[in-house]
Predict the 3D structure of the following.
Amino acid sequence: MTTAPPRPYLKPLPDMSEANRPFWEGLGRREFLVPRCDRCGDYNWVPYPACRSCLSEEQTWTPVSGEAEVYSFTIVHRGHGQFNDEAPYAIVMAKLVEEPRPCIVLGNTRGIANEDLFVGMPLRIVYEDVPGEDVTLWRFGPR
Amino acid sequence: MVRAGRSPGAPGGRSALFPKRQAAIAGVYLTKQGKLPDRTSFSLQLEAIQGALADAGMTVADVDGLLPMSGSNHIGGLDGGTAPHQFWAEQLGGKPVSLMEVGGASGQLAKATAAIASGMCEVAVLFYGKAGRPVGPRGTAMPDRAPRVPEWSFAIHGAYMIPFYAMWAQRYMHEFKVSSEDLAQVAVIDRYHATLNPDSVMGAKGEITVDDVLGSRMIAEPLHLLDCSLDNDGGYAVVITTAERARDCPKRPVYVLGGAEAVSTDFYVSFSDPWFPESGKSVRKAADRAFSLAGVSRDDVDVVGSYDCFTVTGLRNLEEMGFCGIGEGAAYVAEGHTRLGGKMPVNPDGGLLSGSHCGDPSGLMVVEVVKQLRGECGARQVEGARIGVAQQQGFAVHGIGSTLVMAVD
């Protein structure tokens, strides 16, 4: 009996910038880092050059708790490229528990049946090393 | 049903309308819409430009303003290519052009109105054309290595336009207890209208029911195939000029009473909570300002062209434009107001769900409303239509909005 070789990962991957390299390195350490404003304390997602609340350019990559809940979600039956091979697949908009500025993070799920998803469902960020690539991505699992 | 109050500036109702008719639409043109394998985007754009100018009794020599929609530049190389207005200024003969503007169609035409009123230019043409570039997943090839995309791109998570609108619909349905049947009404009405429009892509297929929509295959829950817009080829153009000059053109002038645009988000990278605030977002901002500038109230509107790229968008547009309250779009549509014969038909051409969705379709709403106000629409004509509104939205779902209020004497 032979085992099929693992399929290469053919879904889009991030073209990392120097400015955001700490974030991607953080994922490799199983940390999800969000820029936090040194002046007003707000978290900003996605990372932007200055704080959206007070416009300070002084922001610090800060680990968040990883706890979130489903703000909205969809089960996709028709996707691009390799995603289509995995359809139906879930995409969630996960709202991090960090406040007050809402951080809504997009991602796929792991360990949650599509039919079990609901608005308000508690989630936790999980990490996945991309096979054959020097990239770690975040996913959302059950909490 | 909640109706927006009359805006200040229209105290006397219709008789006191149209205080500032500074510019008018003098020409419109639609290319064939549908599958056009023998055409290029460029040729559709060129046809549309010349067609709209002919409709206005003009030629390219009259044009001194260009309003290209996205995807309108055709020369690559040279440090990454040229801006569309630069390409088209040269292509059309190299005559100096005094207005260059990009954005959503109604917003572009609103700014062109201001430019014409202030003397920056006299004849501007808005145009678009697309052939052979599907927007959705259809036809995408499997890459042989993982493609690299911008680092916060939704593509990393398998999202594209339909999943975003699906998540918007999901949250909207959750907050306001709206059903899939409620959404489906929009597709049913659009298809009915399309059957009366010989230029529509889907009209020949006949009417559909709510059950047809719910029974069509799921694309991204809760959106079925028939909840989604078309993805076809086609082009269009609109010529706008001074009111004075438009009165000398062959067709009945359609005056611009007011217009505005608004943008609040980047391109599908960040989202805010609440998603449906009572105060509204970009579409509300653009509509409020356009109606205020026009001195027209919501009750005065006879016909609407609305960017209903999904059934949910059709409902949300009505709410954000102030024709009903937030969460009341489904009830408003169920009352029959938006269907031909109702008090304010929406998308009598079939809209983006059954009329045409040609790549960047934001000018189609303007073309249809202009034709309605001219009384050129045959079986789908809204009788006695004098005041019309064209509205568009996009980018991160209602992240950008534009509205144009138009009227005939």
User: Anything to note?
Assistant: The domain at 13-133+230-407 of chain B is CATH 3.40.47.10 (Peroxisomal Thiolase; Chain A, domain 1). The longest helix of chain B spans residues 161-176.
